[in-house]
Design a protein that fits this description.
The structure holds two protein chains of two kinds.
Chain A (H helix, E strand, L loop, with lengths): L1 E12 L3 H8 L7 E13 L4 E5 L6 H8 L7 E6 L2 E2 L5 H10 E4 L13 H11 L8 H11 L16 H13 L5 E5 L7 H18 L2 E6 L2 H7 L2 E6 L2 E7 H6 L4 H9 L38 H5 L5 E4 L2 E3 L7
Parallel strand pairs in A: 3-8, 3-9, 6-7, 7-8
Antiparallel strand pairs in A: 1-2, 1-4, 4-5, 9-10, 10-12, 11-12
Helix pairs in contact in A: 4-5, 4-6
Chain B lengths: L7 E12 L2 E13 L4 E5 L6 H8 L7 E10 L2 E2 L5 H7 L4 E4 L3 H4 L6 H10 L6 H14 L5 H4 L9 H13 L5 E5 L7 H18 L2 E6 L2 H7 L2 E6 L2 E7 H6 L4 H9 L54 E2 L11
Parallel strand pairs in B: 3-8, 3-9, 6-7, 7-8
Antiparallel strand pairs in B: 1-2, 1-4, 4-5, 9-10, 10-11
Helix pairs in contact in B: 4-5, 5-7
Classes of the chains: A alpha/beta, B alpha/beta.
Chain lengths: 327, 327
């Protein structure tokens, strides 16, 4: 349904006035470029839940924003039902934008504190002609009930709700325009465990009832393993491994995936000895040459320093970007 | 274990906040012990009182809150109500604390060296040069490369994980016998969290420092802690040996918490969800605080359950514990 074709995103910090003057006077001023995404290809099929995993600065949120149409890629294209989002015009573009909705991490920051719940949920469908003014009240009630909120609270403001309920308001807002694709950016990261379980169950119910497709962005491997059909692992702007969830968690291929799985705490591991991955996550301002993971990789070869490995098929449906697979 | 040998023994601690709206019983009758070299995981959701318990031990509860009852025995000596001078001698010296956000605990305008030397000189009569040496050793101990150079750096020049290491190094400076760690890895990435957990484990094993690890994440303490205390609404509802609790949780809340954690076995299925949400601690109704959300609750639960020891090494507050092994 959604195809990302060679999507790259660079953020360039252009020198400000003071820096430009300093540059005129002979100081060394250079543009700083953050390579947030570097040629990312991800396909998401209809009805699929794709988990996108990575640590801070790997570009997972940037990718989510580009897919949701909040940002434009520097290079590459997002194809929605086979058509480039950029080439769509007028009504078609609006239609496509409505079909992809985003749910954010922080339910405190993503809801307007001065709007009542009924306006947060009801504004967009009215504007886009999905409901009539007279049918709006019932529609809001139905949408709120669907996400497990009591419609009796629709005159309240966001601050009168708990974190979990606020996240439900964000979900109701996204669902109100009848999307078929949801981008969830760390949507359960800020919630307590018992509330997180409630929201995860809600996502599963919605998928079943509304036939939704998800891009589920998270740093939490156990959440991703629970909810995803397919998992994509990113490191510093590149996809390092992409695979159906089960074989990935059973036998990870890429050394970074292995390190992530080994480092993630689980309930099954008792009083274990942690064996940490060495080193820091490098800055995306100045990523390492070749394979981005080579400075921290226990198996790095000389070749890894020079040449970036391509994403290759290692088993049906499984892709990994590692020179070790070349034998 | 006799109380005299425990590094810390908390007995019937009650910390209440006297607000305009009423009395908030954030901690309401908490008792536990931490032995030398032991890591105790204090687990609970937001508002369960786990952080306030930590603050009470180190004497950092601000008005309108205060410890209204109970004893906190540090090596047998009660630290409740110590005057400012004697508490300062203890705090940062014998008992240290690590907070969730290292950027908040480090002074952004002082070099790491200044902050660390200050912490040493506040408690011991050594020369500045010796203090600097101790600071350097502490940085090395937590795995910061080239500690000599890093001493000259400012907090913003460190990454999040490195900053947390600096905070741990400062806690270690005076070789305390108890460290209270309040969600120290919550803000960190998986691989960096692994590194910090590794350092914490090594530290307790090698130096015999006792540690209280406060967290909402059961998976973290599953791998780290020797014993677990589960807190709910200001009380410890269950405590015991880590593996024992995870395999045979007796309290319905502990069972619910464990069931809500997504893991390998739950893939694609529904997660167990605890209905409702954490009650407000303001004017909490008498009786078991969990009864509104508990599947086992009946008339007996209107009476506050006392402490029982239904299994070896287990302490429980519940009228309807499940004592057979989990399926």
């Amino acid at each position: 349904m959604i195809e990302a074709r060679g999507v790259s995103k660079r953020f360039v910090k252009t020198p400000d006035l003071a820096a430009r003057i300093a540059g005129r006077l002979g100081a060394a001023v250079h543009e700083e470029t953050v390579h947030a995404l570097d040629g990312v290809n991800i396909d998401i099929a209809r009805g699929e839940v794709v988990g996108l995993v990575g640590e801070s600065g790997c570009g997972k949120s940037t990718f989510g924003r580009i897919v949701a149409g909040i940002m434009e890629p520097t290079e590459g294209a997002i194809l929605y039902r086979g058509r480039d989002l950029k080439t769509l015009q007028g009504g078609e573009a609006r239609e496509a934008a409505l079909q992809v909705q985003m749910i954010f991490q922080d339910p405190f920051a993503s809801l307007n504190p001065r709007m009542r719940v009924e306006d947060i949920v009801g504004e967009a469908p009215l504007l886009h002609g999905i409901v009539s003014r007279s049918g709006r009240g019932d529609y809001i009630d139905a949408t709120m009930s669907r996400v497990g909120l009591d419609p009796a609270f629709k005159r309240r403001y966001p601050h009168q709700f708990s974190g979990g309920q606020r996240q439900r308001i964000g979900i109701a807002r996204a669902l109100a325009v009848k999307p078929e694709f949801l981008v969830c950016d760390e949507a359960v990261a800020a919630l307590d465990v018992s509330i997180q379980a409630q929201v995860l169950n809600l996502f599963m119910d919605l998928r079943r009832d509304l036939d939704l497709t998800y891009l589920f962005i998270s740093h939490d491997l156990s959440v991703v393993e629970h909810i995803s059909d397919r998992v994509v692992i990113m490191y510093l702007g590149r996809v390092v491994e992409s695979s159906p969830a089960e074989p990935l968690f059973a036998a990870p291929n890429h050394p970074y995936t292995k390190a992530l799985l080994a480092g993630a705490p689980t309930l099954d591991a008792r009083r274990r000895i942690y064996e940490p991955v060495k080193g820091e996550i490098p800055s995306p301002l100045d990523p390492p040459t070749g394979c981005h993971f080579h400075p921290r990789c226990p198996h790095a070869l000389p070749r890894c320093r020079e040449e970036a490995p391509a994403l290759k098929e290692i088993a049906p449906g499984r892709h990994s970007a590692c020179h070790l697979n070349d034998g | 274990m006799a109380a005299a040998h425990a590094t810390l023994a908390v007995e019937g601690l009650k910390t209440h906040f006297f607000t305009k709206a009423g009395v908030v019983k954030a901690v309401d009758g908490v008792s536990f012990e931490v032995a030398r070299g032991e890591i105790m995981g204090l687990v609970g959701e937001s508002g369960s009182g786990k952080s306030v318990t930590g603050f009470s031990i180190i004497g950092l509860v601000d008005p309108p809150g205060r410890v209204v009852e109970g004893r906190i025995l540090h090596n047998g000596e009660d630290v409740v109500g110590l005057d400012g001078e004697r508490m300062r001698n203890l705090r940062g010296n014998r008992i240290a604390m690590i907070f969730q956000d290292p950027m908040m605990t480090l002074n952004p305008v002082l070099r790491i060296e200044t902050q660390m030397v200050e912490a040493v000189l506040a408690h011991s009569a050594v020369s500045k040069e010796d203090a600097r040496g101790m600071a350097r050793d502490a940085l090395g101990q937590v795995g910061i490369p080239s500690p000599d150079e890093r001493l000259r750096a400012y907090p913003h020049q460190f990454s999040g994980g490195m900053r947390q290491r600096v905070a741990i190094a400062i806690a270690l400076l005076n070789k305390p016998d108890l460290i209270i760690a309040d969600e120290p890895t919550t803000a960190l990435d998986v691989t960096i969290q692994g590194q910090i957990l590794y350092e914490a484990q090594k530290l307790c094993r090698e130096t015999g420092t006792a540690m209280i690890w406060i967290t909402h994440d059961l998976a973290v303490v599953a791998g780290l802690a020797d014993r677990i205390c589960v807190m709910y609404a200001g009380r410890i509802v269950e405590q015991g040996e880590t593996g024992d609790i995870l395999d045979r949780p007796a309290h319905p809340y502990t069972r619910g918490l464990i069931g809500s954690v997504p893991s390998r076995n739950t893939r694609g299925g529904r997660l167990f969800q605890i209905p409702g949400m954490t009650p407000s601690l303001l004017n909490l109704a008498p009786g078991c605080a969990f009864r509104e959300r508990c599947p086992e609750a009946d008339g007996a639960c209107i009476v506050e359950p006392g402490t029982s020891h239904p299994l070896p090494g287990r302490e429980l507050r519940c009228h309807h514990p499940r004592l057979e092994a989990a399926p």
